[in-house]
Amino acid sequence: MLLYIDPGTGSMLFSILIGIFAALVFFVQKLIIKVKFLLSGGAADKEAAKNAEKIPYLIFSDSKRYWNTFKPVCDEFEKRGTDITYWTASPDDPALSAEYKHVHAEFIGEGNKAFTRLNFANAGILLSTTPGLDVYQWKRSENTDWYVHVLHAAGDPTMYRMFGLDFYDAVFIAGDFMKDELLELWKRREIEPHELPMAGIPYLDVMKARLEKEGRKEKKEGSVPSVLLAPAWGPSGLLTTLGPEMIEALVNTGYDITVRPHPQSFTSEKELMDRLMKEYPESEHFHWNRDNDNFDILNSSDIMISDFSGVIYDYTLVFDKPLIYADTGTGYNKVVYDCCWLDDEPWMIKKLPEIGVPLKKEDMGNVKELIDKALSSESKAKARDKAREETWKHAGSAAVMIADYMISKYDEVKKKKEEEKPEIKKKAEGKKEGKGEK
Prior knowledge:
By secondary structure, the chain is an alpha/beta fold. It has helices at about 5-40, 40-50, 65-80, 110-120, 175-190, 200-215, 240-250, 265-270, 270-280, 295-300, 310-320, 345-350, 350-355, 365-375, 380-390, 400-435; strands spanning about 55-60, 85-90, 105, 125-130, 145-150, 170, 225-230, 255-260, 285-290, 305, 325, 355-360. Helix 3 packs across helix 16 (about 400-435). The termini are far apart.
């Protein structure tokens, strides 16, 4: 008799197996790091960090790409006259050349060198966008009191790689659904819920303020529509699944086409990118975009075609423009993401049919007609407004909310530690007396 396992149970068992395997991998990695630490004389570095002056407020950025997330926070601390330290793993991070009196930026090295410094950080409150704390190379420092994660884009915090936020003390959120997802995730993992302060998304605030200042890009009379293809990276991304077919169909529309791959594609999918860029060289109406700042291309395009990339929400929430999303049946592989532990699809996936027009594989030959239809339709505007309300709370005020929380939490933690000192001293003296009696 064949053993039957229903799809729901099978999915759960598979998730459990993935979790067990990942836990074993992380355990081995942690053991290796500890051995390297001991062999490299790390104990001396650890003691030096412990004796170093404590940094009340510390920001860590693993890439200059996240300066738009941290700049408004730095600006807020500068405005208040409160010192904050900014550590970056990018030697050309804009923070390093910014003129501040109260923001102290420092390049701490790249890769493992940066994480080694972080592992001994002596700080009160540490703010970062980097997931995977205490999972990969970046370990919690025993000299840092409170770790806080801030989102660098709209969407689901459960779409990080597995265990991405489990070891932070708090996660800034921007919508009620984020709280629901994270609480359900931690409940299933039997993890004590972290603090989830509602703060908003500083990155989107910066983009919105810039749009209000610079204005929308005006179209020349008689010009053809400009279409932006901006997919996610990875095996489920649009360029991986339908790259040549998708680009060919767009080129045949006669419209201005710009392809902006995810920056990670040029690292993790270099062979694919090299091949596509060779097969489809730039021309009058076809361009590749690799700008570090995506503002200009988002502002100048009339419509976006994407899959499940987070840039969808930059485009629809800030610029309020039409979207076509790939619904080709390939889906996305969520096994490696935190959301695979949840029964429901992530919010940003469920929202796609509401805010965008689906592009099915059989529609590829009619993509021009689909673009024209999406450009002339106004039915999605209300859905974009609703999505904006759900995932972008405190629009324009995120930096204020974040600074308020960090300062308040630092005072709270400091007060708690001061109150604990007499008790710790009392216990230490008790142990000492006990040893003397023996």
